[in-house]
Design goal:
The complex is a heterodimer of chains A (91) and B (196).
Chain A: H1 28-42, H2 48-56, H3 60-65, H4 68-82, H5 85-90
Chain B: H1 11-24, H2 30-43, H3 46-58, H4 60-68, H5 70-76, E1 88-93, E2 98-103, H6 112-115, H7 125-130, H8 135-141, E3 151-156, E4 161-166, H9 178-182, H10 187-191
Parallel strand pairs in B: 1-4, 2-3
The chains are: A mainly alpha (91), B alpha/beta (196).
């Protein structure tokens, strides 16, 4: 079953937004999301497949409305809650 | 326990809450967070991909090994591809009459260690949806002109396989040193949205 992330071939997404001298992150919080994900994956709190799946399970309208790193943030929040990441260490 | 799964509020505020909760649980510190980002940015550079290409241009044996088993070939140059997880790397060579373009239609898979942080357009719905349907229009937006009759092969990356375009060596570079050749190679040339 294809879900909203499976967009290869779809029409209507318009022109590319090509930036010259693009920074790696456009907001400080994006860099922090990236770093959090690296640390939690490295600590084995969840796997990369689980992370990807958490993005792919987003409701379609939410997925399309979210920016790239907002999807990451959604996935991290989802997995931290679902897997009890805070419970294990925090008691 | 604190409840971090906020459904509203700005992303910046949600991140702030998340970091505080994870710090409280002993999972990270501000210092480790900064280090995680800085070490990624320090290691993921398009100059690394350019070095691979330049070596392939000057050494036919390396080119052959790169096209045959890219993981082993880049390891010869001391390059570690592991980022989130081990991945299979495949190098695809541009040749007269054949151009290659890489995309990840499902998300944003990309050989970060060789190309540096991926540009926003690579992760955009516009690129992901259209690269596989109308790659010529993508190239046109980059101002990239292929000779008439050139066939384009589009490679759709997956969680397990990442691609690197091996551009054609530019004409008139017969006497160039390897480092001079590497300086000619751009990130977009390694993705295939530009020629080198």
């Amino acid at each position: 079953m294809s879900k909203i992330h499976d967009i290869g071939g779809l029409h209507g997404f318009g022109e590319l937004a090509i930036e010259s001298d693009e920074p790696p992150f456009h907001h400080e919080w994006e860099a922090r999301v990236f770093g959090i994900n690296r640390i939690l994956l490295g600590a084995g709190c969840y796997t990369l497949d689980e992370f990807r799946d958490a993005i792919e399970r987003m409701p379609p309208a939410h997925y399309l409305a979210a920016s790239y790193y907002e999807r990451w943030l959604h996935a991290i929040e989802t997995l931290v809650a679902a897997k009890g990441v805070l419970d294990v260490r925090g008691g | 326990m604190s409840h971090v799964h906020a459904t509203s509020g700005s992303a910046a505020n949600r991140v702030k809450s998340l970091v505080a909760a994870l710090e409280g649980a002993g999972l990270l510190t501000e210092q480790r967070l900064d280090d995680a980002v800085a070490s990624f940015l320090g290691r993921a550079q398009p100059a690394t991909g350019a070095r691979v290409v330049a070596r392939a241009w000057v050494e036919a044996g390396f080119r052959g090994r790169l096209l045959d088993d890219a993981n082993a070939a880049v390891a010869e140059l001391g390059i570690d591809l592991t980022h989130w997880a081990p991945v299979k790397l495949r190098a695809v060579a541009n040749e007269p009459g054949r151009h290659n373009l890489i995309v990840c239609t499902l998300c944003s898979c990309y050989p970060l260690a060789l190309l540096g942080p991926s540009p926003a357009w690579y992760k955009s719905e516009a690129y992901r949806s259209r690269a596989v349907r109308d790659p010529r229009s993508i190239l046109a937006e980059f101002g990239t002109q292929l000779a008439p009759g050139v066939e384009i092969t589009v490679w759709d990356s997956t969680a397990e396989v990442r691609y690197l375009v091996l551009p054609e060596r530019p004409a008139g570079t017969a006497g160039a040193r390897e480092d001079e050749l590497a300086a000619l190679v751009t990130r977009d040339g390694l993705i295939g949205t530009a020629l080198v």
